[in-house]
Amino acid sequence: MNAKQPLVRRIVIAFTLMTLIVSGAFSLGIVAIVHFIEEHLVSQEMNEELDSILQKDLAKGLAPRLDLKTRLFASHMPGYEIPQSFIGLDEGFNELVNDKGAFYVFIRDTPQQRYLLVQEQAEFEARENALFAVVFAGFVLSVLAAWLLGWLMARTIIAPLTRLARQVRHRDQLLTLAPNLAPDYPDDEVGHLAAAFDETLGQLRNSLERERLFTSDVSHELRTPLMVIASSAELLEAAPLEERQNRQLNRIKRATNEINELVETFLLLARANNTAQPLAGGASLAQVADEQARRWGSRFTEKQLHFELVTETPAAGVFHAGLLATVMSNLLRNALHYTEHGGVRLVLEADGFRVEDSGQGVPSDQQDSIFQPFVRGAQARGEGLGLGLSLVKRICAHQHWQVRMYSLPAGGSCFAVKLG
């Protein structure tokens, strides 16, 4: 039986097959018993009647005394010649049905004669056929009744599972406000399954709550040291510094700004953890792209890479500035780390944007896992932990955006983000 069929159908099929086997065996047993009893009783009766004819009638030279439905034939008795239709039958009991009717034929061979006692059995044959028709009808009706009863029983049995599946399917409610499932079910297999769901969902709730609290607490606690770093950088900026010191100070300020943006992003995601609705915003794609181009352009120039912002089609709509900037910034950072020669293009489209680079690309067998946490390319660059693309994927999933990566024909990689 195909295990991929619905459970209701499998129960009905199993129930019907069981009834088919039991009812079929019972029906065949009735037919076999009828034939056995018929042959045994009729054979015994005809054998006794033939003995009586041979010993009491023919032995005394009398004509055989027979009823209207019985006839005697003998191979060497004048007037009792064996008909052609009865020649060739085996000794003992025979049942013969032909165009002339239905007959019981009992044959006894002696050294001198072959005797045939023939009895018409058309009436019994009709009753036998009626009995077999009733047995067959009962067999068919039992199978149909088994199918109907199996369907009703299956629906009754499956009803708690269907209800449980419907409750589990609304997992967003289960993860937040819904009570436990097990109290609604009896202490049986379905109740045990509901209890297992409760336990698993409880562990998932705890994990998500710990993650949310961790993200919120860490993001909140990072604000104080970030404020200290930012204020210290402002004080250092007012002091006379050498060119090398100014470059290091600019790196500190740039890193502080990046961390501030990440903290804001983490806080937004943590606060939005309990809702599936994307966060609204008021920034256009062009505004965010111009800001990121100014921010990353100098870093591409420092690495002697050509950077270009291209607008193929002006994009309509407004988006959450912080989340969109985080996605675009992480993709540009990734392109910076993995590109040594050539350049990087930030291309704006009508429904999103894409980041193209001329780096070494990503092997096809790694493209499916590149967005997983802590996964980095085989030729990893920079000091990252492999969380940037994972964060991009998470933000896009929350905002109902789409991100995909593919290799360019001329070499390098392209990360395309669809915002609608």
TrEMBL record:
<dbReference type="GO" id="GO:0016301">
    <property type="term" value="F:kinase activity"/>
</dbReference>
<feature type="domain" description="Histidine kinase">
    <location>
        <begin position="217"/>
        <end position="420"/>
    </location>
</feature>
<dbReference type="InterPro" id="IPR005467">
    <property type="entry name" value="His_kinase_dom"/>
</dbReference>
<dbReference type="Pfam" id="PF02518">
    <property type="entry name" value="HATPase_c"/>
</dbReference>
<keyword id="KW-0808">Transferase</keyword>
<keyword id="KW-0902">Two-component regulatory system</keyword>
<dbReference type="Pfam" id="PF00512">
    <property type="entry name" value="HisKA"/>
</dbReference>
<dbReference type="InterPro" id="IPR004358">
    <property type="entry name" value="Sig_transdc_His_kin-like_C"/>
</dbReference>
<dbReference type="InterPro" id="IPR050428">
    <property type="entry name" value="TCS_sensor_his_kinase"/>
</dbReference>
<dbReference type="InterPro" id="IPR003660">
    <property type="entry name" value="HAMP_dom"/>
</dbReference>
<dbReference type="InterPro" id="IPR003661">
    <property type="entry name" value="HisK_dim/P_dom"/>
</dbReference>
<feature type="transmembrane region" description="Helical">
    <location>
        <begin position="130"/>
        <end position="154"/>
    </location>
</feature>
<keyword id="KW-0418">Kinase</keyword>
<keyword id="KW-0597">Phosphoprotein</keyword>
<dbReference type="Pfam" id="PF00672">
    <property type="entry name" value="HAMP"/>
</dbReference>
<keyword id="KW-1133">Transmembrane helix</keyword>
<feature type="domain" description="HAMP">
    <location>
        <begin position="155"/>
        <end position="209"/>
    </location>
</feature>
<dbReference type="InterPro" id="IPR036097">
    <property type="entry name" value="HisK_dim/P_sf"/>
</dbReference>
<feature type="transmembrane region" description="Helical">
    <location>
        <begin position="12"/>
        <end position="37"/>
    </location>
</feature>
<dbReference type="InterPro" id="IPR003594">
    <property type="entry name" value="HATPase_dom"/>
</dbReference>
<protein>
    <recommendedName>
        <fullName>histidine kinase</fullName>
        <ecNumber>2.7.13.3</ecNumber>
    </recommendedName>
</protein>
<dbReference type="InterPro" id="IPR036890">
    <property type="entry name" value="HATPase_C_sf"/>
</dbReference>
<keyword id="KW-0472">Membrane</keyword>
<keyword id="KW-0812">Transmembrane</keyword>
